[in-house]
Structure formats: structure tokens, C-alpha cells
């Protein structure tokens, strides 16, 4: 039988107020599939020949990637699939960012050894609203970045479409779900998924709710395929099983459909962004670097990429920037001649900060970086305050507290050091500085002469942790 998906408005009919289609310039770019592979943005593809056929088809078909609303903002772990979507967008493909307002209430078992706690419905709704703003902000800034990095042509490209799968799941009854999706799902195939096998071996096992998650996400792909001409799903490599569920469902529909599609559906996964120890970056891992400057300051965001190990610079320049592969090769070659100058890291930090936070954000990151490490700080106090406006490193302190409290206590009270003993140990080891001068007296207090321009003092613990105390 033919699957019966309830229709919603297709891309061309989405309402103007919320799902606006914007005509902008597109760009003169290398062929898409080889470019994605050469940049290391492809982990697996269900059918590369089909992907090539879809990419070459006119008119352009839509591509989508899902975002789990477990947090209220995007983090750097989202950047790889977002960059993949950006490459599709600048080549004229309609791009859909699907927020899992429905699936987020169940929880994705992929990559997890324990079951997620059910999220509160109101929290998920709040996260969905915040994520909409984050997604729009990223693609708005990224499109401006693309205009500055790739020669424009006279063609047009689509603005990002943001969807929420609660639209079609909220009124999807169990019987309809079983007749539409369940009848085509093979239990042995579902059990073979890596995410399921991992959980079946764990002591807690796997709940039925999480077991069926792959079918819910599979239906998302099917729904967008039927109603929005979406033929490609992009996701992290941990989503492979869920993506296959959608492709399988679409293929089953095609087998029983009178109107056969010559294109079909394709799943594409991107590598996961991991730490040096192999841990996945993300909120649940406790190491998220957010794209929202209110959650991660622009300075911290910039410094995160500036601290990229030499071995990862070429890979990250290819993944996270739109610089040509030829220029990246030249940069890496020059970097290898004098790695201590950190040419590749500086370019990477500049490019990603510009793409995410725009020109103003990059200027702010440059100013803060230059000022916090400048040995000659005289006359720069107001510049430092301006550069760190809104940054948690900048703390305003009463004059009596600033001048009458031991420096190590100021460091602890304002979050620079975790404890008094840790602060004193750092001072004793000459790893603590005041205005870029090493401090040796464990019990010293600040004097008026220590205040730059009579306004601020900069405390530094180790090489990277800063605290700027300013008089209220």
C-alpha cells in the first residue's frame, strides 16, 4: 500500500510571516559532492550515485538536518552539519533546519549508554523558540561571510527554512502511525542498529519509547520528502541508524507508489567534532562552546579555535571555513615552517569568529586578545572595559574590597581560582600574574599604583585564565 502522509504547505507555499523565502546571490563554487568530500565533511552516504544525481537535478531539491532541542542554543558540535548545509545553500538548494520539538520529548538513544530523562514539555518549547533565533542568526551571518569569500554569480538562493516536527507529530495517532510507519518497519533491522545494540548490552537496557525513536525520525524524513521535495538528510555520524530508517521508509513507499521518483532519498552523515581524548563536544558532555555570545563570550569562542592543536589545523580550516582548498594548503605549508607563530590557528579563529559573530564580533575578539596579553597597558583601561563588555571576565568591584582584600581571595571570590589553596599554590609556583607581571607574595594586596589608569587590574592564572577587576 502507499504510505499516507498528511500534507502540509510545501516550500513554495510556506507562510510569508514565518517561513520566508528570500532571493539572494549565490556563488561560483566547485562541484558540491567532491568539495564536501575534500573538506572532510562526509562520513557516510547511503548512495553516492543518487546523491550526485539529486545535486545535479534542476530545479534544486531540498536538504535538511535535524537539531535536538535539549539546549537553548547551538554549540560548536553543531558546526559541522551546519557547514554541510551551508555548502548546499550557497549552491541554490532549499535548506531546512528541523528542530525536534516532538522527538525531543522522547529522547534519542544514539551514542548514549543510559536512557535520557524525559524533558519537560515547557522546557522543550522554550528551547525550540531560542534555537530558532540561533539558527537564523548563524545563517544570516554565514551568508554574509560567504559573500566575502566566494565570487557571486547572478543566480538566487533560498533563505533557511526552520521547521518543528511537532507540526506533524502532535496529532499523529498511534493507529495511523502503525499503519503508516510501523507496518513497514522490520524488527530485525531495527535491532541491528548500533545505537540499539549498545543499549541492549547495557544494564538498563532500552525502553520501547527510545527503541521507536528511529521510526519517529524516519517519518520526519518521509514527511519532508512527500511534502517539501526534500531528498537529502544530513546528520552527524551517530545519526546513521536514524537516517537509514527514513531512507528505508521512503524506499518502501516508492515500491508501492504508482508515481515512481527517479531521484529517491539519500542520507549523508558528517564526522563528529571530538576532543583530543575522543569525547564528543556537546552540552551533555559538559564541554560545550556555544555560538551564543551570552553563553560563551566572543573572546572564549575565539580562543577555543586559537588553541587548536597543529595536527587539527588543516582539517578544521577545511571543515569550518569557506577558504579555497588551495589557500588552505598554502597556509598549512607556511605554518609548518614556523609553527610557533600559529599562523594557521590565527586564521582559523579569525574565519570562524567572522562567520559566526560577524565583523563586529571579530573586532571585539581581536581587541580583547591584544589587550589582555599586552605588556604595556598604560592608557588602555577604557579600551579593555569596552572590549570585554558583557564578558564574564570583567567584574566591577567596590574600591574598598579591591584594595583591602588579599589578591588570592579576590581571585577566588570572582571565579578565577577554584579555592584559596589553589590560588596560593599557583602564586608560589609563579603561575599567577598581576597586570602581566608575575606575583610572588601570597598575601599581597593591591594598591592604587596597581590600577591601570586608576580603573582596572588584570589578574591571570596560568596562561589562559583572566580576570579583569574594574572599579564600580
From TrEMBL:
CDD domains: S4 (cd00165), TyrRS_core (cd00805)
Tyrosine--tRNA ligase SYY-like C-terminal domain: residues covered: 405-467
Catalytic activity: tRNA(Tyr) + L-tyrosine + ATP = L-tyrosyl-tRNA(Tyr) + AMP + diphosphate + H(+)
GO biological process: tyrosyl-tRNA aminoacylation
Enzyme Commission number: 6.1.1.1
One cellular-component annotation, GO: mitochondrion
A Pfam family hit: tRNA-synt_1b
Gene3D superfamilies in alphabetical order: HUPs, RNA-binding S4 domain, Tyrosyl-Transfer RNA Synthetase
Superkingdom, taxonomy of origin: Eukaryota
A GO term for molecular function: ATP binding
UniProt protein name: Tyrosine--tRNA ligase
Species, as recorded: Jaapia argillacea MUCL 33604
Amino acid at each position: 500500500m502507499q504510505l499516507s502522509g498528511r500534507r502540509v504547505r510545501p516550500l513554495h507555499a510556506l507562510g510569508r510571516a514565518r517561513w520566508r523565502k528570500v532571493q539572494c546571490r549565490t556563488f561560483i563554487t566547485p562541484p558540491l559532492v567532491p568539495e564536501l568530500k575534500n573538506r572532510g565533511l562526509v562520513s557516510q552516504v547511503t548512495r553516492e550515485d543518487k546523491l550526485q544525481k539529486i545535486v545535479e537535478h534542476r530545479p534544486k531539491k531540498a536538504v535538511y538536518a535535524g537539531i535536538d532541542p535539549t539546549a537553548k542554543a547551538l554549540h560548536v558540535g553543531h558546526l559541522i552539519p551546519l557547514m554541510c548545509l551551508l555548502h548546499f545553500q550557497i549552491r541554490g538548494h532549499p535548506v531546512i533546519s528541523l528542530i525536534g520539538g516532538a522527538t525531543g520529548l522522547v529522547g534519542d538513544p544514539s551514542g548514549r549508554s543510559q536512557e535520557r530523562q524525559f524533558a519537560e514539555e515547557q522546557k522543550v518549547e522554550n528551547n525550540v523558540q531560542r534555537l530558532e533565533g540561533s539558527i537564523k542568526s548563524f545563517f544570516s551571518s554565514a551568508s554574509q561571510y560567504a559573500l566575502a569569500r566566494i565570487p557571486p554569480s547572478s543566480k538566487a538562493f533560498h533563505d533557511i527554512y526552520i521547521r518543528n516536527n511537532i507540526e506533524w507529530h502532535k496529532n499523529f495517532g498511534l493507529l495511523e502511525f502503525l499503519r503508516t510507519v510501523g507496518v513497514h518497519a522490520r524488527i530485525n533491522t531495527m535491532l541491528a542498529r548500533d545505537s540499539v545494540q549498545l543499549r541492549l548490552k547495557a544494564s538498563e537496557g532500552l525502553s520501547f519509547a527510545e527503541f521507536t525513536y528511529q521510526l519517529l525520525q524516519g517519518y520526519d524524513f518521509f514527511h519532508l520528502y512527500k511534502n517539501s521535495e526534500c531528498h537529502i538528510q544530513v546528520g552527524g555520524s551517530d545519526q546513521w541508524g536514524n537516517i537509514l530508517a527514513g531512507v528505508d521508509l521512503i524506499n518502501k513507499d516508492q515500491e508501492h507508489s504508482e508515481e515512481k521518483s527517479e531521484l529517491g532519498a539519500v542520507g549523508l552523515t558528517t564526522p563528529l567534532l571530538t576532543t583530543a581524548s575522543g569525547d564528543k563536544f556537546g552540552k551533555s558532555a559538559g564541554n560545550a562552546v556555544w555560538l551564543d555570545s551570552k553563553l560563551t563570550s566572543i573572546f572564549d569562542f575565539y580562543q577555543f579555535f586559537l588553541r587548536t592543536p597543529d595536527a587539527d589545523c588543516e582539517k578544521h580550516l577545511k571543515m569550518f571555513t569557506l577558504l579555497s582548498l588551495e589557500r588552505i594548503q598554502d597556509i598549512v605549508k607556511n605554518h609548518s615552517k614556523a609553527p610557533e607563530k600559529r599562523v594557521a590557528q590565527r586564521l582559523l579563529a579569525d574565519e570562524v569568529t567572522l562567520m559566526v559573530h560577524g565583523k563586529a564580533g571579530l573586532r571585539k575578539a581581536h581587541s580583547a586578545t591584544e589587550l589582555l596579553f599586552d605588556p604595556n597597558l598604560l592608557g588602555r583601561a577604557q579600551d579593555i572595559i569596552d572590549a570585554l563588555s558583557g564578558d564574564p571576565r570583567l567584574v566591577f568591584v567596590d574600591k574598598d574590597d579591591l584594595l583591602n582584600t588579599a589578591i588570592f581571595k579576590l581571585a577566588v571570590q570572582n571565579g578565577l581560582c577554584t579555592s584559596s589553596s589553589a590560588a596560593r599554590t599557583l602564586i608560589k609556583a609563579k603561575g599567577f600574574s598581576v597586570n602581566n607581571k608575575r606575583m610572588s607574595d601570597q598575601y599581597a594586596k593591591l594598591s592604587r599604583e596597581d590600577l591601570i589608569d586608576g580603573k582596572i587590574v588584570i589578574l591571570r592564572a596560568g596562561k589562559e585564565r583572566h580576570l579583569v577587576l574594574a572599579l564600580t
